[in-house]
Every structure is written in C-alpha cells, then in structure tokens.
Amino acid sequence: MTWYMPTLTVALAACIVIASSQSIQGADECTSAGGYTLCQNLAEDSGSGFVGEGQGIQMSTHFRSTPSSVEWGTDYEWKVEDFTTVKSFANVESNDAAGLRLDNLPTIAATWNWNYSSRAENMKSAVLFDIWLGHTPERNNGSSHEVQIWLSFTGGAKPIGERNATIYDLAEHDWELWRGTNGTTEVIIFSNPEGEDLSTFNEDMGSFFEYLVDKADIPKASCIQSIQAGTMVFGGRGTFHTSLYTLWIEYPDFEPAFPV
After folding, report:
1. Is the CB of residue 25 less than 8 Å from the CB of residue 58?
2. What pLDDT, in 10s, does the model give residues 125-178?
3. Which residues pair with 124 in a beta bridge?
4. Which of 2.60.120.180, 2.60.40.1510, 2.60.40.10, 2.40.50.140 is the CATH number of 7-250?
5. What is the mean pLDDT of the chain?
6. What is the rounded CA–CA span in Å between residue 192 and residue 190?
7. CB of 205 within 8 A of CB of 111?
8. Residue ranges per domain, the chain?
9. Backbone dihedral region of 30: left (phi > 0), alpha (psi from -120 to 50 degrees) or beta?
10. What is the pTM assigned to this prediction?
11. Among 98, 92, 107, 164, CA closest to 134
C-alpha cells in the first residue's frame, strides 16, 4: 500500500527547517540531520577523508532537514582493484526507531526519493535500507538479524548468501529473498529482481516486518535496533543524492516496550 503522510503534519514540520549544509569526511564521522543521523561508515581512514592510503575518498553532506525529513548526499571515488568488499555505507539513521518491538509495531512508512547525478562505468554499489534486529534495543548487546531491502544495484553487486525465494507483490513490488550470515548474525535481503532503480519509494514498511515474522521465522519479540537508509559502495566513482527521505512512525494508542 502506497503511503502518504498527513498533509497537516508535513506543513507543520516544514516550518522548522535546518537549511545550512554540513559535510563530513572522516571514516567514522557522523552529524545530526534533523530527526536523523548522517554517517560516513568508511572501511578505514588515513586522515582527511582519504581511505586505504589514498585509494579512496568520500564526502557526505547534510543539505537540509526538518524533524521528519532530510536531504543528503555522498560523493566518492574508490580507485581500488578489489571490488569484492564493501568500502563504505554512507547512510542516514532514524533517531526514533530503536526499541520498537515486532509484536506491537506502530505504523512505519518510508518515502525515499534519490538519484545518481553521476556514476562511472566501473561503479559497483547498491542502494538499500539496512535494518538491525535483536533481543534487546541496543546494538552493542548484539544483533540476531540484519534485514536489507535493496532498491538498486549496479556493477555486479549482489546480496550475501543464497537466493531463497521469489516474493510477489510485497509493498507493491516483487522481490528476490536472499539469506546468509555475517559472523553470528543472520542476514535476510529483499532484492529488487529487475535490477531497475526504485528511485521513488513510498511504502508502508509494515508488510516487510509482517513477512519476516510470518514467513521468515523472525521471533515476534524481536526489537528494532536501527533503521538506516544509504548506499553501499564496493568501488568506482559516483555522486549519490537523496532529495527527500522520511521514515514516518505513527503511534496510535501505542507505547513502545522500551524507551525510544
């Protein structure tokens, strides 16, 4: 079901705009972005944004935000021979999602409008949601599952693990379901099977969580630890821009199991 945020709420939120842009370059550097946190998440750093002794450079920018939405982007060039490992995952993370339990979720709806203003022929990357689940709200206590929703992939990027099933008409799209592991964490990935850019995504995320509980054997008592949205880069050069991202969480007579 396509989701539209209440007009009144959007109008009120638009009255509070953080318009001054801020850029970050450090490997682990983050910056506040309204109701979100923008982070670089580079593989390693040798200073001044140059990674792997000059093999790569990346800069992420928060352009503007409101309490409910954010505009951001990242510009990178990775001159590497190894295109098999992830070099970065620049992303925005919701400040309000941690602590929600799957057995008593509020409405969670996402709007994400994005594009590549430039991309080199050798660019290998994916655009995705990255959702962490666990037995407790804090990721530092360990995560039981990592759930990704791939809206785009290019340059031969593919999900970890093996293809497990094809899912039809989930959040108005078809998906390939992949399952694998990352250390002790189980990874479940919904991948866009057509390979097209789902560059305008406006959906209720609840259908994914329902599938995870009903069909993927995720425990109902699992907590959402983090919901991130960004671009995973394996190599090459690109300029990625999100003109609008909103993760809307609505609490109709709802109290989270843990403090948010």
Report:
1. yes
2. 999 999 999 999 998 888 999 999 999 999 999 999 999 999 999 999 999 999
3. 235
4. 2.60.120.180
5. 88
6. 7
7. no
8. 7-250
9. beta
10. 0.88
11. 98
